[in-house]
Amino acid sequence: MKSFCLFALAASTVLLSACQTDAQILASEQALATQTALRRGQFELSCPEATASMLSSAMLQPVAWRGTERAEYTIGVAGCGKQKTYIVVCPLDSSACYAVSGR
Questions:
Q1: Which helix (H) or strand (E) element contains residue 12?
Q2: Bridge partners of residue 22, in order along the sequence
Q3: Secondary structure element (H or E) that encloses residue 34, with its range
Q4: What confidence tens digit (pLDDT) does each residue in 70-81 have?
Q5: How many angstroms separate the most distant Cα atoms in the chain?
Q6: What is the pTM of this model?
Q7: Cα–Cα distance between 16 and 34 in angstroms, integer?
Q8: What's the chain's average pLDDT?
Q9: How far apart are CA 30 and CA 4, in angstroms?
Q10: Is 91 exposed, middle or buried (0-12, 13-18, 19+ CB in 10 A)?
């Protein structure tokens, strides 16, 4: 009975997370994406006091059938008289984001 209850709880969690709107998903990943871009920007700009700002966000559909849906953010990082823009991607099946480009 205990294993059935655990299974039911896990299944309901999966179903509820599948019901989130794109806006809710983007909002839930935004802090991690911003922090990822900020850390990279602080390093590349050699500026520990740099700050980050969200420029845009979008959901990316899987590339292949049964692929991973991803949240994509464009984040600006500025400080010490310099600035860069990063595209940050957060795969929804992971707890990590990565900055894939900088301008």
A1: helix 2-18
A2: none
A3: helix 22-44
A4: 899 999 999 999
A5: 62
A6: 0.73
A7: 25
A8: 83
A9: 35
A10: middle
